[in-house]
Prior knowledge:
The protein is of the alpha+beta class. Helices cover 38% and strands 19% of the residues.
Amino acid sequence: MGFFEKIFGSESANKEGQTRPAWQQFPNEEALVHAIEQTSFEKPVLIFKHSTRCSISATALNRLERTWNETFQQALHPYLVRVIEERPLSNAIARLSGVEHQSPQLLIFKDGKCVYHSSHLAIDVENIKPYL
């Protein structure tokens, strides 16, 4: 364990010893479509749309990460999309889900469909549990 990990903790675990999400990213829209149309049939795909310039988005992301655990990691494919830096992907998510873009926003896809979405401070790990 390195110096900074000893002081600030590791990136993979929070203070309670819970696992942080192992966020994946979409390299392109084809990967996004594949995740929705194929991967979501294996296990649900969770997409967190995050604005790197918004304090509410940072707060919502931090709250989600603090309450994340290994059960969620095993049951879901978590993806993080930075809406400013990845605008085309963000727009594609809105188009493919049929859900109007907001940021921050959490969407869950299962069997090729968006089965849950929430935004801003309504994003709560307790609401994800029924989709595990």
